[in-house]
Structure formats: C-alpha cells, structure tokens
Amino acid sequence: MDQDCAGDPECPGLLPEPTAAELRLEAVLHALADPIRLRIVAELAGAGGGERNCLAFELPVTKSTLTHHFRVLREAGLIRQHRRGTSKMNTLRAADLAARFPGLLDAVLDAAESCFETSKPAAR
Amino acid sequence: MDQDCAGDPECPGLLPEPTAAELRLEAVLHALADPIRLRIVAELAGAGGGERNCLAFELPVTKSTLTHHFRVLREAGLIRQHRRGTSKMNTLRAADLAARFPGLLDAVLDAAESCFETSKPAAR
Asked: Is A22 exposed, middle or buried (0-12, 13-18, 19+ CB in 10 A)?
C-alpha cells in the first residue's frame, strides 16, 4: 500500500484536512451523525487502518452524494484522503482521534455495530 | 425534588420522548453536535442526575432558540422533560443512554470538557 502521504501535509496528493490539534468535537459528531458516513467510518475501521478507494464502498447513494459524504468526513478530520491517479484513497484517522478525544470513536463504532446488527442482521 | 415522573410515560407532565429501545445513534450524535446542546448536556451531567429548570441555564441564545435545543435533545432521547406549573424541568437520561450505547455519553462528555477548557478556561 502506498501510504507514504499519511501525516505529511506537504504530500502533493493529500487533500486539505484539519491537523490533529484542529479537530473540533462538534464537527466530528456532526460528521458521524449520518448513517452513510457512519458506515464509511465503520468499514474503514474494519479495514484495520488500511486505505480504501472511494469506489470500493457499496452504499445506496449516488457517486456525487458519496463524494459529499467523504468530504464532510475529511473536513471534520475523521478520514484522510489522497489522490492516486484518478482515484481518491481513504484512511481513518483513528490515532489522531484517539489522541484528541479518547474513547469517542470506539464508543461510536461499538454503538454503530449494535445498530447495524439490529437493522441489518446480515450486514457484515 | 419531584422526580416521580421519571420513566413513567403515563405521567401527565411528561413531554413526549423515545423509549430507551427507540434511541437512535444518528439522532443522539446529531443532538450532541452543537455547542449549546453539548453545554446543556454537560451541565445536566454535572448536576449529578438532578433536574434543572430550563431557565437555570445561562447560555448566549434567545429563549426560543433554547427551547428548540431542549426539544432536539428530548426528541433524540438525551434528556427527559416534564412540566411543573409553567416551567419545564430537565434531567439527563444517562442510564438509558449508557444501556443503549455504552461509553458513548461519557466519551463525549470527556471530550466536551477538554474542549470547554481549551476555549473557555474559566467556564466551570
């Protein structure tokens, strides 16, 4: 995996994002307060820190809507995006979030998992 | 304190609210994704489970805006409201939230506390 952009603000392919110190709780909670975005975050968390192409998410929304959701997540600091050719690759900023808001992402992911299980028994 | 309405859906003064089983993660996160609502929740948590009159919150918003925020919190299931005379009394539904989404409220409150400290050193 080409993750040499991670954490390097000078990387030419890296899309604009807040620094770890700039993460705002309201923005993080707002970004998570949507079922599609929550699912993206849960899938990235399930990928164990690996990166995923935007197109690799099978979600019931149009491409432009999905692009919007990824941007909200990136601007809130939940995910990092960098361009590779014509694709955008995504990683969860789990370490930055854990450092800034300890326990928050894990609690949300645990809650999301129980919700997904309730609403979609065969979701994962 | 007159808390005999707590948890009793038949109580005439109790305002409509979701049951514990009806709590939705997205609604809870959306309700928390606002600095005024976060402050209300933090103040109620700081009150140790006690009830507080809507008018007892000193927040930089108009009364009608405050009423809106309380309604969002109640409809998301974060707070319980019941009328007493011309007042509305508020309690945090900490136990319901902890049962449905373990660790979530605590993580958000911890994060909020660190944010309040950063932005307003003398806030509490």
From this structure: exposed
How many Å apart are CA A25 and CA A8, to the nearest integer? 23
- Top residue of A25, A39, A109, A117 to mutate, by most chain B CBs within 10 Å, is A25
- Quote the ipTM score: 0.84
A26 interfacial to chain B (CB closer than 8 Å): yes
Of A105, A79, A42, A39, the closest CA to residue B108 belongs to A105
Cα angle B22-B26-B31, degrees, rounded to a multiple of 5: 95
Between CA B119 and CA B69 the distance in angstroms is 21
pLDDT tens-digit profile of B48-91? 778 999 888 889 999 999 999 999 999 999 999 999 888 999 99
pTM of the full structure: 0.86
B35, exposed or middle or buried, with CB in 10 Å at 0-12, 13-18, 19+? middle
Closest alpha carbon within chain B to A29: B33
Beta carbons of A106 and B101 less than 8 Å apart: no
Give Cα separations from B51 to A24, B17, B34, B119 (angstroms).
29, 16, 21, 27
Is the separation of the CB atoms in A98 and B111 below 8 Å?
no
pLDDT at B111 > cutoff 80? yes
For tokens 């918003």, the residue is B61
Contact in structure between A97 and A23 (CB atoms under 8 Å): yes
